[in-house]
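Morning run. Coffee first, then this:
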Amino acid sequence: MAGRKGLYALGLLRRRRLPVPVVCFGNISAGGTGKTSTVVTAALELARLGRRPAVLLRGYKRGNAGGVTVLAGGGTASLDEAGDEALMLYRMLEPAGVPVLVSADRFASGTIAASGLGADILLMDDGFQHFAVERDADIVLVNATAPFSKDSPLPGGNLREPVSALGRAQAVIITHCEQVQQDDIDALHAEIRRAAPRAEIIESMHTPETFINPATAEQVDLNALKGRQAVALSGIGDPASFENALKKMRIDLKQIWRYPDHHAFTLKELAAAEQSRGGLPLITTYKDFARFPPGWQETLAGGVLIFSVKIVFLCNGWKALMRLVDGAGRKKD
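And here it is:
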């Protein structure tokens, strides 16, 4: 990573600027920070303000690694073409008319978004280590439950870059504050301030929003499972946050299945879960449901509930974030 940054700094590798502003949401750790929820919230707010945002992402573990996959205007794509995160993002953003473009070449996808789809601001999902495209703002998310002071760089730990990389960010968002004590948040604040003295530090938490029955698209009240037993299935970067949120809602998880992040579920695996859940409700996440194979509904005859959460910013965090995001875009006007 240091070598790549050096090549860009020396000009031996070239950074290119897209015709519209770019705001990057990224990590210095390998996933599990709540980044996607933040991107969705920012994109929806930009659309509400009259902007024309588009979201760019790589499409980790998608089978079709070449070209650009465009999700826009009601169009569809397979899991192999787009990847699970892109499909989840598009389900959330399609009602607001926000396109999602998937490609390892963010310059190519950004050019299509700006020139072909009329986007006037681009949100790059997970691109903090992608130096090939110039950005107007870098926003890094840090999980309060996994402070970097107790971590080390890959492969010995979970960090993509040393903590000093936070110095490139204009803002650092501490996520999952609801799961730790205030003393822990204060200590993390101090560590971030040492690494990024000029960055805006924003606190946030994830709160349950609703359950969704994907077979009918109906919402199910959160209290419907309060005090009841259920099972949980996930393949995400931070499964503990998902499971702890359910437990805090007084849901008794009798079984928990954890698969690797971005795991593509098979009908055989779903059938095994159906057989062993004993008729209990099966709860999963948006991101995981995007990786359910065709035939899931017949296999999971007992039904599925998707757990939907929303991100809530503390104090004046939301205003600070949107001032940075929308302000970065306005610099081009």
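The first strand starts at residue 22 and ends at 26. Good start to the day.
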